Amino acid sequence: MTTFQLGLNSFGEVATDGDRVLSDAETLRLLVEEARLAESAGLDVFSVGEHYRAGHNDSATPVLLAAIATATERIGLGTSVTVLSTNDPVRLYHEFSTLDAVSGGRAQLVLGRASATESFPLFGYDLADYEQLFEEKLDLFVRLLRQDAVTWSGTVRAPLVEQVLHPRMRPGGIPTWIGVGGSPNSVVRAARHGLPLMLAVIGGRPQRFAGHVELYQRALAQFGHATLPVGQHSLGLVADTDEEATETWWRYWQPVVAALARERGFYAPTRERYEAELEHGALFVGSPETVARKIAATARDLRLNRFDLKYDVMHLPREARARTVELLGREVAPRVRELLTMEPSHV
Questions:
Q1: Which residues are CB-contacts of 241 (< 8 A; sequence separation ≥ 6)?
Q2: Distance in angstroms (rounded) separating the CA atoms of residues 76 and 99
Q3: What mean pLDDT do residues 36-54 have?
Q4: Does the pLDDT of residue 182 top 90, yes or no?
Q5: Half-sphere exposure of 166 (CA within 13 A, CB side)
Q6: Mean pLDDT score across all residues of the chain
Q7: Integer Cα distance of 146 and 135 in angstroms
Q8: Residue 155, helix vs strand vs coil
Q9: Within the chain, where are the H helices?
Q10: DSSP state of 13
């Protein structure tokens, strides 16, 4: 098995410093600092999402990743999710071929259809075209990754005829994952295109995705592709003790989820449900040993190659963010790899 990778995901959520909420600009500069810290702590990937709502500062992801590239030397530079449906594949290729060049080959992507849909009205797209937009644009983007001169036509943008883009990506393109929130059709789509699978597991038992992983492996074989990596994105916080981590995360996660519950019509985050998520669900919150054991168990159950922790939540103090980054890299990551060596996953 290749070395199990651990990374960080950020949605650019504003942090606090003492009693003061950081400005958007301060939060962006903090992200660059945290990416530098992640590299020094030994983590493999630092990824940034794409959102268009108050409190989130990840709306120009390639620009932010380019800034991080100048402040780091080794760490992979990725996206928690790029909303391909409302991006232009040609422009996206240019942005990430440039990022890959200036970073020395460290760029990667997770492409998704969007669970937060603010980008559709913002950029003039119709949600009724949700599926068609993603399918056609993914087809084009994969061709751009893998072919030198691309001829393509569809309904969502102008056609291309023997188009060659510059700067060129490395042969075969950059690593490009498909983000999946639970749809079996999305799993099969990733396999059909021969792209790695990133599972977004934000609630409930991660093991319920075991069937998706099995479906993915069967579909890869059916489409004639070799085995490809599977990753997981989940939320959490690492602190020196379980109690500190549990209380800190609850204080800042609870109001965020309560607001989302009102917006999207799902359950309010009670303390009982929170503690159930800590014990058996998709929140990876605790001391380094607790989090490491939970990641390793999930990696074995889902046959994972990679785990990304979404570590920022609205108004979380910058000290708690930094401690999570340090502990994840210096203590959790080596312990996870040790546990997987003792009882390896089935990857």
A1: 287
A2: 11
A3: 97
A4: no
A5: 0
A6: 96
A7: 17
A8: coil
A9: 24-40, 61-71, 89-102, 119-122, 130-146, 184-193, 210-222, 242-264, 271-280, 288-302, 318-327, 333-342
A10: B
Lookup: tokens for 187: 């799993």
Residues contacting 202, CB < 8 A, separation 6+: 233, 234, 235, 282
Bridge-based pairing state of the strands 160-163 and 150-152: antiparallel
Q: Give phi and psi for 126, each to the nearest 5.
A: -100, 125
Contacts 24+ apart (CB under 8 A), 243-252: 245/285, 245/286, 245/287, 245/290, 246/278, 246/285, 246/286, 248/316, 248/320, 249/283, 249/285, 249/313, 250/274, 252/313, 252/314, 252/315, 252/316
pTM equals 0.96
SS3 per residue for 295-332 = HHHHHHHHCCCEEEEECCCCCCEHHHHHHHHHHHHHHH
Task: Give yes or no for a contact between 119 and 101, defined as CB atoms under 8 angstroms apart.
Answer: no
Burial letters for 180-216: b for 16+ Cβ neighbours within 10 Å, e otherwise?
bbeeeebbbbbbbbebbbbbbbbbeebeebeebbebb
Distance between CA 85 and CA 119 in Å, rounded? Answer: 9
Map tokens 């399918």 to a residue: 135
Contact 58, 12 (CB under 8 A): yes
Maximum Cα interatomic distance, the chain, rounded to a whole number of Å: 60
Stretch 199-215: mean pLDDT? 96
C-alpha to C-alpha distance for 111 and 176, rounded to whole angstroms? 7
Q: Which residues pair with 180 in a beta bridge?
A: 199
Contacts of 218 (CB under 8 A, 6+ apart): none
Please choose, from the candidates 167, 169, 193, the residue with its C-alpha nearest in 3D space to the C-alpha of residue 180.
193
In contact, 22 and 30? CB cutoff 8 Å: yes
The structure tokens listed for 147 are 């072919």
Neighbours of 27 (CB within 10 A): 22
